[in-house]
Amino acid sequence: MYKNTNNTGIIRPGTNANSNPGIWNFILGISTLILFFTSSASAQQAALHEDLSLKYLVQLPVQRSAHPPVIILLHGYGSDEKDLFELRNFFPKNYIIISARAPYTLPHGGYQWYTMTQVGGIHDGNTAQLAGSRKLIEKFITEATAKYQANSKEVYLMGFSQGAIMSYQVGLTAPAMLRGIGVLSGTIYPSLKPLIKKSDALKQLKIFVSHGNVDQVIPYDEGKAAAGYLTKLGLSPDFHRYPGMGHSISKDVLFDLVAWLKK
């Protein structure tokens, strides 16, 4: 099981990145993931690219085609582009895999897509930073698709925790840019809902949602409520509940995600 509790967009009241007892368990999670997924070839360190709007790592498809599909990965709070990039060998070999770095640095190390806030006692994100990151990701999608000659009709945006929240942010406001979004342990912030406009592109957006029922960072009920909200919009999210899983990405999540991708 991949368990990176540092990758979260929600720090509960009375805690911070240094006081959260699980915050540094991500080192063990990443080490376990590397041992499970990497081979001698894939273990080679990828070069950091800085030529687009966001810094990123990329793996080109093993099975080449003229215009391959692409998966863009968004990490969580306090992490970086190397984190979810370790999942690359799990995805089908005909995809371009790109892992992007969030734009905002943290004093204790790592990066974030936005700063956490509360509005009326309800968790949300700094709206200016959410909007800024949303626009950066949209620009990055356009740039990366053009540079790597990817199929613009087969772009998937996937993220964990804060990255999952940003996948909602982009996918639900600019659905025409994407074929689908993979939301791993995320939620829909109240500030996003007024920005969502019904459209044919939104109806056609594929949505995968995973959430552990014992998640103590972004509670399961928030993930379930987000999926319920999508259903009320007339969408059909593929929602998966994982008994006994916390704020994590398990092997079962990855198996289900890849199966959804192939549908």
How do the helices and strands follow one another from N- to C-terminus?
HEEHEEEEEHEHEHEHEH
Mean pLDDT, to the nearest integer, reads 86
Percentage beta strand: 15-25%
What is the helix tally?
7
* Ends distance: 24 Å
What would the principal axes of the Cα set say about the shape? globular
- CATH architecture field: 3-Layer(aba) Sandwich
Number of DSSP strands?
A: 11
The stretches of 5 or more residues where confidence is low (pLDDT under 50) are: 1-43
Helix content: 25-40%
Number of domains: 1
CATH topology: Rossmann fold
Secondary structure category: alpha/beta
Description of the structure:
The chain is built from seven helices and eleven strands. It has a single domain (26-261), classed as Alpha/Beta hydrolase fold, catalytic domain (Rossmann fold), CATH 3.40.50.1820. It has helices at 26-37, 82-85, 127-147, 162-173, 200-203, 220-232, 251-261, and strands at 56-59, 70-74, 96-100, 104-105, 111-112, 116-119, 122-125, 155-160, 180-184, 206-212, 238-242.
Fold topology:
Blueprint: H1 26-37, E1 56-59, E2 70-74, H2 82-85, E3 96-100, E4 104-105, E5 111-112, E6 116-119, E7 122-125, H3 127-147, E8 155-160, H4 162-173, E9 180-184, H5 200-203, E10 206-212, H6 220-232, E11 238-242, H7 251-261
Parallel strand pairs: 2-3, 2-8, 8-9, 9-10, 10-11
Antiparallel strand pairs: 1-3, 4-5, 6-7
Gist?
With 263 residues, the protein is an alpha/beta fold. 29% of the residues lie in helices and 19% in strands.
